[in-house]
Each structure stands twice: as structure tokens, then as C-alpha cells.
Amino acid sequence: MCSLTEKDRPIVQLLLNTGTCSRCILRFCCVGSQALYRCPYKDLMNDLKEFLKNNQEKEDMVCFDVVDPPCKRIRLEHTEEGPDELNHNGALQQIPSVNENTAMENSAVKVCNVCLGILQEFCEADFVKKVCQKVNSADYQFTSFVFSVSLPPQLSVRERAAWLLVKQEMGKLGLPLAKDDIVQLKEAYKWIIHPQLSEELGVPADGKSLFEVSVVFAHPETEEECRFLATACPDCFKPAKNKQSVFTRMAVIKALEKIKEEDFLKHFPWPPSSPKNLCVALEIQCNNGAVFVAGRYNKYSRNLPQTPWIIDGERKLESSVEELISEHLMAEFKADSFNFSSSGREDVDVRTLGNGRPFAIELVNPRRIHFTAEDMKGLQQTINNSSDKIRVRDLQLVTRSAIGRMKEGEEEKTKTYSALIWTDKAIQKEDIAFLDDIKELKLDQKTPLRVLHRRPLAVRCRIIHTMRSEYIDEHHFRLHLKTQAGTYIKEFVHGDFGRTKPNIGSLLNRTADILELDVESVDVDWPPALDN
User: Locate the Pus10 N-terminal eukaryotes domain: which residues (predicted)?
Assistant: First the structure.
């Protein structure tokens, strides 16, 4: 059981007199009972009035009416001295006792001078219903929720001022008050609002939930209250490209930790004055955690890039593997956006055959998240029916961590290719037969000229594990290669003006070029094969 004792009396009286709401008073009295904060605001105020009026013996108690637990009582002790108020310079100043009418006038009617109304108006049923209407209208699938709140940065300044006020009052009683002893505003707010949101939405609050309901509060009237910190602690406020203001909550907190108490008191009045207006809820947003879909794709077109081909803002080809797959996933999952990744990539004129290339797609903020194995099979069929340029297999839901397996040891994996090769000089079958005997051929590949605009200049060591030649005619043969992943096959054939050594041209002692290239297998055992 949490209770207010005689040591809390001057704190309650002082904060009531300066315009602090009943719930913030409980916070600064270090009351940790969640049930007390959920009591109706007016009931809490009346209980605090009774606490101040009561002059009974030490063991007498004043009840706090709560549902769970059924009753909270405040332990009373005799008081001998009235509270003191702190002036703007931090000196103690005697103030008159607070009567119940003053307390009600300052704390029940006025906007709280500490929380700026967040623990007042925004704990009421009307606001909870407003939040839930926003959630329901967004049409998300979810089985639990996590609630987050963004507070105005100047609220931290007011919190610091109130803490210093209370700490000095406690010091008169010979009692310490660390900042961490106070119940944090966000914590108290969630204690109050979680049960209401849970009841209204019909699902439990869960700190690990992937579905987030967030509220962003602002208080334009007091926005200027942080500015003195920029002068006192300029190194804490640095412009950032993605931030509209340097006065972020984290920057303000950092400055408050750095500034000396006496410097703070010179610039900020305490107790802080009560504002005229409540905070405003700038945004009520919903966000579902990303869903990840994996599979393998075959690419049958020699005129289809893996990702959109755009040069200098101009699109070169109308579609891509990424788009042919993702457009259907986006529509079914009702996601905001997506991120595509794969185990390597093929050129626009290269086919991917065999079991295909592993890929994964991150679907950002999906509205629909519940899909059965049959649903995924149907979605796979929809993708395959939509185009003859690609085909997808083993389509399935995976976790974020599982995607890492696609990239694990990527350069140690092997890939199998089939290349159609042309030579300038006539060849016979016996001229290329020796290629079949070459094993573990080491290459030095300087970054190809064709990718130098997007890849750093470097010399990469790659290995051709095996080769098997297939004679066609005097100027053509097919070469089947098993290579280390990351090997530039085209450059291995034509040499890239000597940037890849050795190469087929140098091995055959003639000019060679590649006419067609197919990826026959990508030896990555992921995602798990499905019976589809």
C-alpha cells in the first residue's frame, strides 16, 4: 500500500498552491500505486484537500477510493510547520497556508504547471475514444498494442524546476529527493491510459507488441522556454538534417543534465507559472512492425533488370523483377512501402534458371499481417500468373533474423553459370578441351569498367572452381562454370581490357566474348523449400 505521510504534507500544500495537478503531486510524492493515478481527477483533488485539512492522530487515515486495490489510505502525521516557497533566485520564502478553496482554484481549474495538462484532459474517456477511433479507422490487423507518447521538450524544463522546488522543501525536513525517485510523467500517463485503451480496443497492452499507437503532444505557448539552454549549453544543440528544431527532447535532457542548478535557477522561474492553454495532440499515429516475405525467383527475360533501371531520373525499362513481385505483396499486405534484397543480382540481359535466386522483401507498416500457408500459396500463384518474365517459388513469411541467413558467408557460396562464348579465330573441340581439367583457378578482378560508377575501385580475388566446355561450331562454344559468388563472369570471358587476369581470351590465346549468360544455380540453402 502506498500512502502519503506527514513528510508529504508540505509538498502537497506547496504544489497545490503553485498550480500543480493532483496526479503530478502524487508523482513528486513518489507514490507508486498505479491504481491511485487511475482515480477520477476530481476525486483525487478532493482527497488531497482532505489530507491537508485532516488534523487527526498519527494513525488516522484518509481513504483514496480506488477499484483495484479496493482502498488506498493516506497515513497522516501531525504537522508543526507550514510550507515554504522558493523564489526565482532559489531562496526560501515563507508563504501562507493553503486553504481548500485556493487549492481547488489553482489545481482543478488551471492547466497544470508541470505536465501542461497531459495528466488532466488527456486521461479522460473522450480523448481515449478519439485515439481508438483513429486506430479503428486505419483498419490494421493486430492482437496487442504498445503505446508510445512524445512529450514537448519544454516539459522537461518544467519538470526540472518543480523537482528543484520539491527537493529544497524536502531538504528542510532533512530528507533527500533524487530525480529518479519521482514517478516519470510518461510512466504515470501509461498507467492511466493503458487499461482504457485496452478495454476500448479489445486487446491487451504489450511492451513487445509490433503494433504501435503513438501520440505526439505539443505546447506552442511555452515553446520558448528551452532557449536559455542553448546559451548555457550550446554544444548540446546541433542542427540535424531530419530535425525541424535543435530543441529536441533528447537535446534538452542532455543540457539539463549538464547545466548547474544555480545557473538553471538564474534563467528559469520556479515554481513555473501555470499556462493558459492545454497541450495539443498534434498527431495520433498507428504503425505495424514490418512483415518479411521470402522466396526464390526465376527470371526468363533478357530484357528485365532486377531493380528499376533509372539513369539521370529517366526510366530505361518499364518493369523489374522487384516490381513484378512486390506490387502484389504490397496490395495484399496493404503496406506503405517495401525494401527488396536478394542473394546477389544478375544483369538485365542474364537469365536466372534452376531453383532460382533467394530474395526477401520487407513490407513496411502493413495493415494486413495474418496469412496462412494457403494464403501465401495463392499469392505466389497470383504473382506467377501475372507475368511470363518471372516465376516465384517457396514464398513464405519469415522473421527479420532469418533474412540474415541469406547474406551469411555470401562470398563463400558458389554459383553455377552457363555462358555462350564467341571467338574471333576458329576453334576445334580439342582446342577447348583443356578447360575441363582446370580446377580452383584463381582470378584477380579489378572492378569492371561497367560498374565502376557505382562500385569502389579494387582488385578482388575470385575462384573458378570447375569448368566444362561444350563445343558448338568453329566460333562458338558453351562453357559451364562453378564459381565463387561475386565473380564477374562476363569479364572472365573477355578480360575487360586486361582488368581480369587470367581470362578465357588469354587462356585460349585469342579474342573471346560472351553472347549469352544464364545463372543455373545459386547455392544458398534458404529459404526452406516448400512443397509447391
Answer: 112-286
**Which residue among 65, 84, 347, 513 is the active-site one?**
347
Cell readout for 383 is 504473382
CA dist 204 and 331 (Å) reads 28
Alpha helices by DSSP H, listed for 387-473, are 400-407, 429-432
pLDDT at 138 over 90: yes
Start-to-end CA distance of the chain, whole Å, equals: 60
Can you tell me the distance from the alpha carbon of 405 to that of 480, in angstroms, rounded to the nearest whole number? 27
Q: Any idea how long the chain is?
A: 532
Active site residue 336: no
Domains of the chain: 6-57+112-225+268-287 (no CATH), 291-411 (3.30.70.2510), 415-522 (3.30.70.3190)
CA distance 395 to 375: 10
Backbone angles phi, psi at 52, to 5 degrees: -70, -35
Residue 329 host element (H or E): helix 321-333
Look at residue 290 and tell me whether its pLDDT is greater than 50: yes
The stretch 18-42 carries a mean pLDDT of: 94
